[in-house]
Amino acid sequence: MTSNSYLQIICYVSTLLLLVKPLGWYMARVYEDESVGLNRLLAPVETILYRISGINPKQEMPWTDYAIAMLVFNALGTLIVFTLQSLQASLPFNPQSLPNVRPDSAFNTAVSFTSNTNWQGYSGETTMSYLTQMLGLTVQNFLSAATGMATLVALIRGFARRNADLIGNFWVDLTRSSLYILMPLSLILALALVGQGVVQTFNSYQSVPLVEFFNYEQAKLGDDGVALQDSAGKPIMESFTTKEQIIAVGPAASQVAIKQLGTNGGGFFNVNSAHPFENPTPLSNFLEMLAILLIPASLCYTFGMMVGDTRQGWAIMAAMTLIFITLIFVTVAAEQSVNPALAALDIDQSANISQSGGNMEGKETRFGIINSALWAVATTAASNGSVNAMHDSFTPIGGMVAMWLMQLGEVVFGGVGSGLYGMIMFAIVAVFVSGLMIGRTPEYLGKKIEAFEMKMAAIVILIPPLIVLAGTAFAVMLAAGKASVFNPGAHGFTEVLYALSSASNNNGSAFGGLSANTPFYNGLLGLAMLFSRFWLAVPVLAIAGSLAAKKIVPVGPGTLPTHTPLFVTLLIGIVLLVGALTFVPALALGPVVEHLQMLGIK
Amino acid sequence: MISTYYLLLILGFYALTVALVHVFEKLRDRL
């Protein structure tokens, strides 16, 4: 690793940590309905929204009503995005006259954006009209993130309340998450990105003359669309000269801001934040990368404030940060390392004044090794999924770290809301394990953890691995699954495993090399995203309801402190152990084999 | 064209998940 790498990591992590407390404090006040400075501006808007929707903000809900409200709202969101795509050719804001989206692709995308995954089987600039991008995808970027935050806040109230049947009002939590947190932050970031050169326009795509004309040949087609052949049976070729290039533009900055802040990750353009119109400069790269982890990290402090002990939030934050930093170093070291196959050809792979060195395939030269590796770890630690480099071109170990971070359940910061509630499930398992060791009923934050909570936590932890492993097995056994894999052997297997890991943990990043826009993968990954989002949120809310009804047990001499380094170590151990035991066999068949092949071991 | 098959798939999933809410509530009452 270079000194530049160390400096950039320190700069990134320290800036993030500095922002955790102020933003966490702000969010806690938003959810506790206290003044935050924006009330004079936003409170009237909030009131109007409640009046129009017929919502009484003072009326709280039991967990069942909260969960059903969340599900009905997301069902409507899925249907709206699906319908918009299916009818976009007949709707306005479609200057390129793009056709309706195929039903299987529309299903996958609708599910993807409502589940906060933002897996993209399609290419944005050639598939989606401006209306679909803005009214469908960008709106869901806000609402899916707000849904995750609302679910988390309900769980926190479960810990904070005693002998209560109610865990808050879903509509209020959703509205306040969007209005007071996501929208102001998105506005600030979008303006900063426009300042850096990210495009934001309603103009149609620009046609520009090429500096050098481009000549190419193409088979001549008959009226039936079949290539014509000469008497020798060879295709008849036609010569063409391209004199202009179409450059895709659009309202990108507004979508990029929320895709980063809301851990959505779906790019306006196909190559996401590797595109110079989405991420033009090192500063835009830093801001976008910071935005990935900003809210998930700050929510740890919000959690601590709302349960009345900020040390609890810092303890979870410490566990996340330690895993995150360790895996940054592993990835950067892997990407900066020398490939023995290239070294045998006397290729200079060292970092020096004129080159980044290491593995630069699939990376932007303006970002280099460190910013590509740092982004890859941040985007897969959070359930963001945006990319600024192609993960398929990472070294086997670099690609494996990105995949493993998703497989851990997206709990190392994770998605906005969903990352922390996932980590709290692991904390519940950790107190249960330690309770078994000392023979006491486990408690967490003064609440007894009993059979129901353990069953729900087990469901939350086990559903994603089940979908990943069963889905991968299913895909590599069927011809429809194998037909989309471009690379043979271990790398091809990794591509399938990565796709399932990404969808089943609501990340959305793609490894590449897999032609996933097929009815088979659109259906399989669509179902994976649905189950892993909502069949996890429901048991989390069930735990919230169960905990809220319990009394708070006073701290005694037998209580396991959950803010100490010992508990942080235990929590990290549980997360890594579950991740390792579940996925090591699958990883051994993919990236581990590939790494050994790279080293020339047979 | 809007595909009825995928519409039913979406609605079916959410209906199933709403049923899951009630299953968990029953389970909580039993425990």
Structure characterization notes:
- The complex is a heterodimer of chains A (602) and B (31).
- Chain A contains 19 helices and 4 strands.
- With 602 residues, chain A is mainly alpha-helical.
- In chain A, strands 1-2 form a two-stranded antiparallel sheet.
- In chain A, helix 9 runs antiparallel to helix 10 (310-336) and helix 17 packs antiparallel against helix 19.
- The radius of gyration of chain A is 25 Å and the shape is globular.
- The mean pLDDT of chain A is 93.
- Chain B has 31 residues and is mostly helical.
- Chains A and B meet through helix 3, helix 4, helix 15 and helix 18 of A and helix 1 of B.
Strand content of chain A: under 5%
What is the number of helical segments of chain A per DSSP (H or I, 4+ residues)?
Answer: 19
Q: Work out the helix count of chain B.
A: 1
Which structural class is indicated by helix and strand composition of chain A? mainly alpha
Q: What is the chain-wise order of helices and strands of chain A? A: HHHHHHHEEHHHHHHHEEHHHHH
- Report the sheet with the most strands of chain A, covering strand number, pairing sense and barrel closure: 2 strands, antiparallel
**How many individual β-strands of chain B?**
0
- Assign an overall shape of chain B: rod-shaped
SSE blueprint and pairings:
The complex is a heterodimer of chains A (602) and B (31).
Chain A: H1 3-31, H2 39-53, H3 63-87, H4 103-114, H5 124-127, H6 130-160, H7 170-196, E1 206-219, E2 237-247, H8 252-261, H9 282-306, H10 310-336, H11 340-343, H12 368-381, H13 396-407, H14 418-438, E3 443-444, E4 447-448, H15 451-477, H16 479-482, H17 489-504, H18 519-548, H19 565-598
Antiparallel strand pairs in A: 1-2, 3-4
Chain B: H1 4-30
